[in-house]
Amino acid sequence: MVLLLTMTLVSCKKSLETVNINPNNPETVSPEFLLNTAVFNTMKLFGGPMRREVLSHYSHYVSVGGGQFPRFFTFASTNNGYWQSSYVSCLQPLHQIEVNYKDDPAFKNRLIIAKIFEAYLYSNMVAVWGSIPKTDALTGHVSIGYDKEETIYLTLLKELKEAANSIDLNGDTFTGTSDAVFAGNLLKWKKFANTLRLRLAIRISNASPAEAKKVVEEVLADEKNTIISAAETSRAFWGTTSSNWSYLYEYNIVGASANASSLNVISESLIQHMLPYSDPRLAVYAKPASQGPYKGKYWGQPKATQLPAGVSLPDGNPHSPLGPLDYSQIGDYFTKPDAEYVFLSYEESCFLKAEAALKGWGGTKSAEQFYNEGVTASMNKYNLPKQDIDKYLQQPGIKWNTVVDVGERKQEFEDFLGLTSSAVTQANPFRQIVMQTWLAGFYNAMDAWTLIRRTQILEFPPHFNPDGGEGGGVGYAYTPQRLNYPPVEYQVNNAEITNALQWLGDKDALKTTLWFALPVKKNPFLPQ
């Protein structure tokens, strides 16, 4: 831990540059150093290999060839690494701020900021594994009890409320260069805490509707203290040197030749949801294929390019024998070395409020107004022309509470097997909100995977070449619902993890549905 906390944190655009350590007192680690350590390590975890192998793949933004995680299975040592990075690299620096400065009133706000970001991390971790250690975590004991998934969410909602209400806007803060997220802006941290609380309340709205409604109404009663502009988006940036640039840039651009067989490339599902609706963001998210039979066209890769057992197509398989370079690559905005990493965006804030308004849970605008605001915010982010935005918002199926008449265009909305469709053929504002939340969050893969599991309303094909036994007797596997607990926990914390397994019905499997999520929506065209 001493080695970890004294590692040099080299620059990351927007203030991951300054490290304040008193050379005359090396035993004391400055909270300024610790916050940015946690922020940068969070980006490296949820925006690094985990996003390439798991999150962006399970969120159906991209497809990637090779590896057990991409084939809807698990790889033990990698899962151990995700778990240990979460606790050691990401949470422990924040915990050290709390341990070392909790009794010093001069650090009151900085302690609160650490708790807010800690809540963000736990909200990710509980969405990845389900029940996890929280109450007694980071104490240094070998045997650590798990907290029930439901308990963690209710605790996080309480902690975020206390944090937002306790910030003294005239008090201490991190200096600009030591806060990579908001450059010491206390009001923005307050708004982030409140909007994160809104996100988590909406997330548990299926499992605990009464609690969710109470929290949402409370947050929206003070809506001005939520994220209400693009300038308040919670994000940080990677850097421009090899020590801190974006993992996606390193893997897909710098290492393109070496990684040619396993690049993240645009998924068929993303093209399905954008191209038929003439979505102007498609030119930002993706590039037309630069080679192969679909050169010059937007062409997405399905989860598995081979046909399912017993299936044949009259015109042959359009994905055989294509490789990653024959598909649309990810757009330049996302593959820059100093690309952004978004924790919670203005556009997501709009869509959360749209969903709340649709439920009748408050807000200063109608669900339709929030919906249009979110779509507009997403497109303004990429400087798209107003006329393109207005035209898109009038598209049938995109315009609020409308449907699209697919007519002879039916196949444009479908995957290549005709199993799923993006066509909004029945009036369903909720589906429209979810679809636009998913589209606006492109490459914010952790949040998109959670959205898919929570709502189960968008259609995505299963994987027809799953690894291990995940396909069972039917030969395919739906989007994983969680990650397995890491093997290291069975080795060093077996008694406690055995207790926790009861909350999963003793099924430590990728297909086990978590408390907050809905059951998997099964495809009616496939054997069950």
Hey, roughly how much beta strand do the residues contain? under 5%
Low-confidence stretches: 1-26
Structural class: mainly alpha
Number of helices: 18
Fraction of residues in H or I helices: 40-55%
State the total count of DSSP E strands: 4
For the largest sheet, list the strands in their spatial order. 1-3
Radius of gyration, CA atoms, in whole angstroms: 23 Å
Largest sheet: 2 strands, antiparallel
Q: Give, in order, the helices and strands.
A: HHHEHHHHHEHEHHEHHHHHHH
Q: Globular, elongated, flat, extended or rod-shaped: what is the shape?
A: globular
Terminal CA distance reads: 48 Å
What does the average pLDDT come to? 92
Give structural attributes.
single chain, 528 residues, mainly alpha, globular, disordered N terminus
Describe what this molecule looks like in 3D:
It is a single chain. With 528 residues, the chain is mainly alpha-helical. 41% of the residues lie in helices and 2% in strands. It has 18 helices and four strands. The strands form two sheets. The protein has a two-stranded antiparallel sheet with strand order 1-3. A two-stranded antiparallel sheet has the order 2-4. Helix 12 runs antiparallel to helix 13, helix 12 runs antiparallel to helix 15 and helix 13 packs parallel to helix 15. The longest helix is centred in the N-terminal third of the chain and has 26 residues. The N terminus is likely disordered.
